[in-house]
Amino acid sequence: MSNPAGRVSNNPGENKHPLPDCCGGLGNVDYSKMDLKLFEEVLKHIDFHDPSFHVAVIAIIFNPLFWNVVATWEHRTRKLSKIFGSPYLACYFLGFVIILLNVYRSHSMAIVMKTQARWEVLNRIEVFILGVLLIATGSLLVVSSFLALGFTGTFLGNYFGIVMDEKVTGFPFNLAENPMYWGSTANYLGLALIGASPVGLVLTAIVALVYKIAIHFEGGFIEQIYQQRTRKHE
């Protein structure tokens, strides 16, 4: 989904200072000394051979891959706009398809979290409350992002030539980049904690990873769009 507020630095000077060891330096971490018992304990409660788990993973990976491929194809060919006779109708169509795919993804993840084993370590009131807070925060980010961007701004309108006058910088984009994606991730994490579901934690991690990759590709495109728009108005 589109995120006009994303910022990609094009100034090499911003990135020439190395991170201190406390902040970065992942290459200096001695992974052999890390305690993997917690990670191993999580994996013990997951049935990776469960077909429902496979379906959920496929749905998680497929969704952003699908909408990025289709949107890029539309940007290059304008085929959808020609089929529907309007870039707005084409964008609405893709948006509703994305919504249906995301509903199915959520459903497939809920099935796995419901049918696979719970982890008693997570079955605590503190964890439950944290899950509720995450869902509340995630829902706020998702809804406020949608209201700020509108339907076409949320569902890749930039690829259809429907470009907003300027980037959205107000709430929630003044708090976090890509709030729609991270709000959705927070919702899944909250559901996993409420359900004391270790498989839910793993699926949420996959969601976050896939979104991170999607942001990499979408962010570069959106920066290019607004840079071109700025040059035209100079």
TrEMBL record:
A Pfam family this chain is assigned to: PEMT
Intramembrane sections: 51-71
Pathway info: Lipid metabolism; Phospholipid metabolism; phosphatidylcholine biosynthesis
The protein's Enzyme Commission number: 2.1.1.17, 2.1.1.71
Compartments, record wording: Endoplasmic reticulum membrane; Mitochondrion membrane
Keywords (A to Z) from UniProt: Endoplasmic reticulum, Lipid biosynthesis, Lipid metabolism, Membrane, Methyltransferase, Mitochondrion, Phospholipid biosynthesis, Phospholipid metabolism, S-adenosyl-L-methionine, Transferase, Transmembrane, Transmembrane helix
Catalytic activity annotation: a 1,2-diacyl-sn-glycero-3-phosphoethanolamine + S-adenosyl-L-methionine = a 1,2-diacyl-sn-glycero-3-phospho-N-methylethanolamine + S-adenosyl-L-homocysteine + H(+); 1-hexadecanoyl-2-(4Z,7Z,10Z,13Z,16Z,19Z-docosahexaenoyl)-sn-glycero-3-phosphoethanolamine + S-adenosyl-L-methionine = 1-hexadecanoyl-2-(4Z,7Z,10Z,13Z,16Z,19Z-docosahexaenoyl)-sn-glycero-3-phospho-N-methylethanolamine + S-adenosyl-L-homocysteine + H(+); 1-hexadecanoyl-2-(4Z,7Z,10Z,13Z,16Z,19Z-docosahexaenoyl)-sn-glycero-3-phospho-N,N-dimethylethanolamine + S-adenosyl-L-methionine = 1-hexadecanoyl-2-(4Z,7Z,10Z,13Z,16Z,19Z-docosahexaenoyl)-sn-glycero-3-phosphocholine + S-adenosyl-L-homocysteine + H(+); a 1,2-diacyl-sn-glycero-3-phospho-N-methylethanolamine + S-adenosyl-L-methionine = a 1,2-diacyl-sn-glycero-3-phospho-N,N-dimethylethanolamine + S-adenosyl-L-homocysteine + H(+)
EC top class named in words: transferase
Positions on the Lumenal side per record topology: 1-50, 72-83, 153-195
GO MF term list: phosphatidyl-N-methylethanolamine N-methyltransferase activity; phosphatidylethanolamine N-methyltransferase activity
Entry's transmembrane regions: 53-73, 85-104, 125-151, 188-211
Coiled coil (UniProt feature): none
Purpose of the protein: Catalyzes the three sequential steps of the methylation pathway for the biosynthesis of phosphatidylcholine, a critical and essential component for membrane structure.
HAMAP family: PLMT
Protein name: Phosphatidylethanolamine N-methyltransferase
